[in-house]
Specification:
Helix content: 40-55%
Structural class: alpha/beta
Number of domains: 1
Radius of gyration: 17 Å
Strand order of the largest sheet: 3-2-1-4-5-6-7
Distance between the termini: 38 Å
Order of helices and strands: EHEHEHEHEHEHHE
CATH architecture: 3-Layer(aba) Sandwich
Number of helices: 7
Shape: globular
CATH superfamily: NAD(P)-binding Rossmann-like Domain
Number of strands: 7
């Protein structure tokens, strides 16, 4: 029996990249996983099918984040998915992974882009947590995906870095707020990971090598590297870890 048998997890932005790896890992550990997607329904369904073929359980949940009423819409879709399985809409693990980047330097910033990044990267996780806590069982787990950009000077994407700093502040506040129910809240801090989000930064072998050089291991991170850390935080083994930002950068800038 897996470490997460009997648990229900919701992973946002799980149709690709880090979210996809997290969904697969939590399902492998026994959780029923709601695979959230924004626009990539086909990709999310592929994740569900992969999990099913591996002996796990999952269903897709479609909802656009960063728009009015997004949290309510997501949980409505989540409830419908649970009902289709004959299950009550309960939650044990919430992973706020969905995010957008592309802000550029401060001279390139625009109010429209600023608002979009904060809506998706900060506002959505906050209200997904707020609504999720009404469904979450005691001893639950909240894991927010942050970024090394919040810990080091990253002028190339200043607004994105700001959003991740806000996510970490949110994590601290939530951890203390929910401790009475035995719920933990933590953030995972990836560095450069081989995902679509970083594709433009590794268009040549030289560019990829430059990114890999940030890690003491001399390689870029893989989505599974982050998923394994999330799986630990989602497990009973992490019951005494809360309010933390776990560095998963492969020793970047040591």
């Amino acid at each position: 029996m897996g470490a997460l048998a009997g648990k229900v997890a919701l992973v946002t932005g799980a149709s690709r990249g880090i979210g996809r790896a997290i969904a697969r890992r939590l399902a492998r550990d026994g959780a029923l996983v709601a695979v959230h997607y924004g626009a990539r329904k086909g990709a999310a369904q592929e994740v569900v099918e992969e999990i099913g073929k591996a002996g796990g359980q999952a269903f897709a949940v479609g909802s656009l984040l960063g728009v009015a009423g997004d949290a309510e819409a997501l949980y409505e879709a989540f409830g419908a998915g649970m009902a289709d399985r004959g299950e009550e809409p309960v939650l044990d693990i919430l992973v706020n992974n969905a995010g957008v980047s592309g802000s550029g330097r401060i001279g390139d910033a625009s109010p429209e882009n600023f608002d979009r990044l904060f809506a998706v990267n900060v506002k959505a996780p906050m209200f997904l947590i707020q609504h999720g806590l009404t469904l979450m069982r005691d001893e639950g787990r909240i894991v927010n995906i942050s970024s090394a950009a919040a810990h080091r000077s990253f002028p190339e994407s200043v607004t994105y870095a700001m959003t991740k700093g806000a996510v970490e502040t949110l994590t601290l506040a939530v951890a203390k707020e929910v401790a009475g129910r035995g719920i933990t809240a933590n953030a995972v801090v990836p560095g450069f990971v081989e995902t679509d989000m970083n594709a433009r930064r590794r268009e040549t072998p030289e560019a990829t090598a430059a990114l890999a050089a940030h890690s003491v291991f001399g390689r870029m991170g893989q989505p599974a590297d982050i998923a394994d850390v999330v799986a630990f935080l989602a497990s009973q083994d992490a019951r005494w870890v809360t309010g933390q930002c776990i560095d998963a950068t492969g020793g970047t800038a040591l």
